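Here is one chain, start to finish.
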Amino acid sequence: MPFMARGGGPPRGSPPLWCLPPSGSFVAVLHTASHEKGQIYIPVVNWSLAVVAAVLLFGSSDALGGAYGIAVSMLMAVSL
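Its structure:
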């Protein structure tokens, strides 16, 4: 029998995943807007993807440090 909502109609979202812990215990899930259903923001996933992208893009910590130094220098020059 498929998952049904309380009123007997089709569910408005995905069924709960009983194999995972409640979302409030380990992972912060933020709802971005009250008028958009199902749109969420998970900060841990966002930061993890950013770190993985930076490591893959630059390849080494030396290259990443050099890019950071250039970015700081350019910011200081622009904001004088």
